Amino acid sequence: MKNRRKSRYIYSDAITYDNLYKMWLIIHRTCKDRRALFLFALNLNSNLLNLFASLKNKTYQPLPYRTFMIFEPKPRLVMSQSIRDKIVNHFVTNYYLIPYLENKLIDVNVATRKNKGSGYAVKLLKKYFHSLLLRYPGKEIYCLKIDISKYFYSIDHEILMEKVEHYICDEDVLNLLSLLIGETNQEYINKNIDYYNQKYHIDIPYYKNKKGLSIGAMSSQFLAIFYLSDLDHFIKEKLKCKYYIRYMDDFLILDVDRERLKYCFKEIKGELLKLKLHENKKSNLYRASLGFTFLGYRYQVKNNKLQISLYKKTVKKIKKRLSFLYQNNRILYMRSYASYQGYFSVLRREKREFKMKLVEKYQVLKEKYLYEIVLLKEGIFYKTFYDDAKILWYLFEYKYVGDCVSFGITPYDKVIAKLQRLGIGFVVIDKDNEVLRCKKEKEDYRSYLSLASRSFEKKKKEEEILEKVARVLDSTDSYDRLNQILDEFLEQV
């Protein structure tokens, strides 16, 4: 009863300008629609005040979703909200849902939660396998995988609200939440789905009345993991499944007792029916010795050891996408590369293969910071390449080796101070993040690049002449050849 009393009057206290502004900062950092962000920011203060007033007065109404299709890894309808609605969605999740519902979720419910996610799921699964392999050496390990059919389209609004009402009693919060999830009842949603199905010859499910959550909204993500929370407790506490993980609507249970897993499967199907959900055809029992997939990886036990791998077609698809991005969008290419590195972090061979070189990162960033010196921090050194390296070579007489100039932490302040004094723009990048940037006139950068390039070419010619002279002196050639080389040098100078 304590939680119920605490959550009875929480609506008004959370609605402050500062809280809405915090949500705006999150949206500004994460939203990809830069045009919509720019338009909202033009009148930021008045937009937030209007939003504040509509929430306080309980007159807020969400705008229609902007729907579009994505096709990787499979065709899926995404519902994009306006900036004001994104702010409200984040606000509801961060100030009403997470504070009062997060602690009801078990640890192994890992999707879309802070410090969890797919990486945590893989970590848990490896831990489970190692525990079973040590405890039951040589015994077959079985895996029960359950996937719910059309999960986001099947979540029942009445059942969901009953579950929320058990912990949140403020009627104003519940009304606002009902307003957000009820948007899928609007007629235009199914009209858009019908249009996409005909245009792309696909079979996106339609939303039934009082069923389903929008795909893409933060509140939908959280409510989707909360909807099955009671089932999580049933599996862990009633069925006593020790080796259990759930990622959204993907269930995985490990055991060495095949009959016990069959019994668990039957019980879980019964609980799903109470929630008006059904498992899809992919749900089944698998032998770990034959292998199974989970969250994009393939797991298999061979010779009492766990092996994790990827399908060749997955690697091929990733390489194809990276190649396309490299040709068309270098900034997105670099971000995707970093993302795939995390994806491959559990695989040794692929991790090495997909490691991005520092010079490649420089080339991508240089397209964005065309008239600024790009300094990349790697360990205790700062490095730059090509034209930027020539400028540093010219100004500081650092060694130019392999199209690269590097210097340590100690002279860093001296380098930055001189670049600022000379009016040369620069940007310092640490782990893909911009740490420091100083924008200057591009003409100053061009001037110093021109001076550095001429000096660099002269230096290269001098080195070539000296190398030729050294070869002549070491050979049996006559001194006439040496005089010829010196004459050529004097003409070039």
How would you briefly describe this protein structure?
The chain has helices spanning 2-6, 11-14, 17-30, 34-42, 44-56, 83-101, 117-135, 151-154, 157-165, 171-181, 187-200, 218-227, 229-238, 258-274, 312-328, 330-343, 348-353, 358-368, 386-396, 412-422, 442-474, 479-492, and strands spanning 66-70, 76-80, 142-147, 243-247, 250-255, 284-287, 292-294, 297-302, 305-309, 373-378, 381-385, 404-408, 426-430, 433-438.
Structure, explained:
By secondary structure, this protein is an alpha+beta fold. The protein is built from 22 helices and 14 strands. The protein has helices at 2-6, 11-14, 17-30, 34-42, 44-56, 83-101, 117-135, 151-154, 157-165, 171-181, 187-200, 218-227, 229-238, 258-274, 312-328, 330-343, 348-353, 358-368, 386-396, 412-422, 442-474, 479-492, and strands spanning 66-70, 76-80, 142-147, 243-247, 250-255, 284-287, 292-294, 297-302, 305-309, 373-378, 381-385, 404-408, 426-430, 433-438. It has a five-stranded mixed beta sheet, sandwiched between helices. Strands 4-5-3-6 form a four-stranded antiparallel beta sheet, sandwiched between helices. The protein has a three-stranded antiparallel beta sheet with strand order 7-8-9, covered by helices on one side. β10 and β11 form a beta hairpin. It is globular. Mean pLDDT is 86; it is low at 349-354.
